[in-house]
Amino acid sequence: MNRRGQAMAHNNLARIYLHMAILAEAMDHSRHAVALAGEVGDRRGESSTLATAGMIHHHLGDYAIALDYHRRALALTKDTGDFNMELRVREELERTVLAAAEAEAAQRS
Q1: Total domain count for the chain?
Q2: Residues 96, 68: contact at Cβ < 8 Å?
Q3: Per-residue DSSP letters for 37-101?
Q4: pLDDT tens track of the chain, all 109 residues?
Q5: For position 77, which CATH number holds?
Q6: Which residues of 41-62 are buried (b: 16+ CB within 10 A; e: fewer)?
Q7: Contact call for residues 37 and 11 (beta carbons, < 8 A)
């Protein structure tokens, strides 16, 4: 399997572990996916891996890190012209912004 294929496989595994709420495994596969996709210059793949990393950090409650990943993913989707991926990333970005605001409001209460 080539490096691009490895990045996609790690990203898919990260998503599976995320949905199973096994976040440590999800994070491990996500790190590999982001690194590999960036290494091979696969901008669409990199966007997808960054979005997955953002979702994992969102679920961990690391909203600032999640926002950074989502913003980086959004910038790449705009560059690639992948409108469907851009919409998905925008949705995740919005969810994270709202969750961060709710968490901040709860801390102030």
Answers
A1: 1
A2: no
A3: HHHHT-HHHHHHHHHHHHHHHHHHT-HHHHHHHHHHHHHHHHHHT-HHHHHHHHHHHHHHHHHHH
A4: 799 999 999 999 999 999 999 999 999 999 999 999 999 988 999 999 999 999 999 999 999 999 999 999 999 999 898 999 999 999 999 999 999 999 999 888 8
A5: 1.25.40.10
A6: ebeebbbbbbbbbbbbbbbeeb
A7: yes
Output the six-digit token pair for 26: 């999800």
Length of the chain: 109
Q: Which helix (H) or strand (E) holds 31?
A: helix 23-40
Residue 17 domain boundaries: 3-108
Question: What is the C-alpha separation between 37 and 4, in angstroms, rounded?
Answer: 6
